[in-house]
Amino acid sequence: METSQYTIKKTRTKNSKIDQVDWDNIPFGKLFSDHMLIMDYKDGKWQEPEIVPFENLSLHPATSAIHYGQSIFEGMKAYRTVDGEPVVFRPEKNAQRFRKSAHRMCMADIPEDLFIYCLEELLKFDDEWVPKKDTNSMYIRPFMFATDGYTGIKPSDTYRFMIFTCPVGSYYTEAINLKIEENYTRAAYGGVGAAKAAGNYAASLYPAKLAQDEGFHQLIWTDAQTHEYVEEAGTMNILFVIDGKLVTPKESDTILAGITKRSVIEVAQDWGMTVEERKISVKEIIESIEDGSLTEAFGAGTAATIAPVKMIGYKGKKYELPGEEKRTFSKKVVEELDGMKYGKIEDRFGWVKKIK
Ligand code: PLP
Ligand code: COI
């Protein structure tokens, strides 16, 4: 795909909200930057992208995404380095995953370079919205939904791709409590669990709410057939340090292949740590908490970053995990990843892309 064939029409807002932002108190996901990008797919091809002021959409009531759920998204972040430059972390991974999600949901293919081109153009236009504090970042939400106004069920012929951005602070502000789910299922073999499909999140709300009513932050999903094997945790992948080894469930079509988790694994391997990507039974987790061989558990995701787990609930029992003093690996890995993102240490993996 030759992106130079596209010229983006850009319309700057006359009512910028940037002066109203309280940069020391940014909530997650409620503050939106001034502009958004829109690109429509019709007649078998992507039309010219456009950057416009952030505003509401006007949709046909039969918009098929609303009724039948052809809707996918990505989550990525931009950071401002200590040199004041905005950068993004491994954006090509999100572009690749977006394509996979689109393929599984029978939606229009968006070439990776077109995805990245749109992303860069929007980020350049709104680059002053990338926070300056190194505890904050800019969450980027690329998404695509089916736009046919048609009540029958079939893959839509038209789609809208969009990107908006949100300056954000922390998603979780404390170590989290996770409940191992024994009845409900996020994803089954052959299903859409490995796609970042909107419906996956809708399906997880009710079981997560039940857990939240009991005081948990999120669930640890287990496999659909037996509920005996750990899969992932709500909006994060899950990793454990057991006997000094980094252990995480092997990717499958029921688990979202997380970019944060992959980066943690690659850093750990680079440090010479043993990494096991394999099936992990709930029994193993509980036993290794009880015998003290599990020293750390943490979630890994773009929004949640690295979220240490302080307690795991299972069959009505609460298992307290070792405290902060034992979280040596997750602390070190956060320092390493944040160091690269904020330009404090060398980006030796080539993961950080300048927005130019
Ligand atoms: N699993 C689910 C269900 C998610 O929503 C996310 C967040 O994107 C992740 C895992 C972590 O993926 P990533 O690290 O690419 O953000
Ligand atoms: C992300 O980390 O990008 C996610 O998708 C989580 C989001 C649902 C808040």
Features:
single chain; 356 residues; alpha+beta; D-amino Acid Aminotransferase, Chain A, domain 1; D-amino Acid Aminotransferase, Chain A, domain 2; 2 domains; eight-stranded mixed beta sheet; 18 strands; 27% strand; binds pyridoxal-5'-phosphate; binds 2-OXO-4-methylpentanoic acid; L-leucine-2-oxoglutarate transaminase activity
Explain what the structure shows.
By secondary structure, the protein is of the alpha+beta class. The chain folds into 2 domains: 3-168, Aminotransferase class 4, branched-chain amino acid transferase, N-terminal domain (D-amino Acid Aminotransferase, Chain A, domain 1), CATH 3.30.470.10; 176-341, Alpha-Beta Barrel (D-amino Acid Aminotransferase, Chain A, domain 2), CATH 3.20.10.10. Helices cover 24% and strands 27% of the residues. The protein has 7 helices and 18 strands. It has helices at residues 64-68, 91-104, 112-125, 198-213, 259-270, 282-290, 328-341, and strands at 9-10, 35-42, 45-46, 50-53, 71-73, 76-80, 86-89, 137-146, 159-168, 176-180, 218-220, 237-242, 245-249, 275-278, 294-301, 305-314, 317-320, 352-354. Strands 1, 2, 3, 4, 5, 6, 7, 8, 9 and 18 form a 10-stranded mixed β-sheet that branches. Strands 10, 11, 12, 13, 14, 15, 16 and 17 form an 8-stranded mixed β-sheet that branches. Helix 2 packs across helix 3 (112-125). It is globular and about 60 Å long. The model has no long low-confidence stretch (mean pLDDT 96). Bound molecules: pyridoxal-5'-phosphate (PLP) and 2-OXO-4-methylpentanoic acid. Pyridoxal-5'-phosphate binds at residues 75, 232, 235-237, 256, 258-261, 300-302.
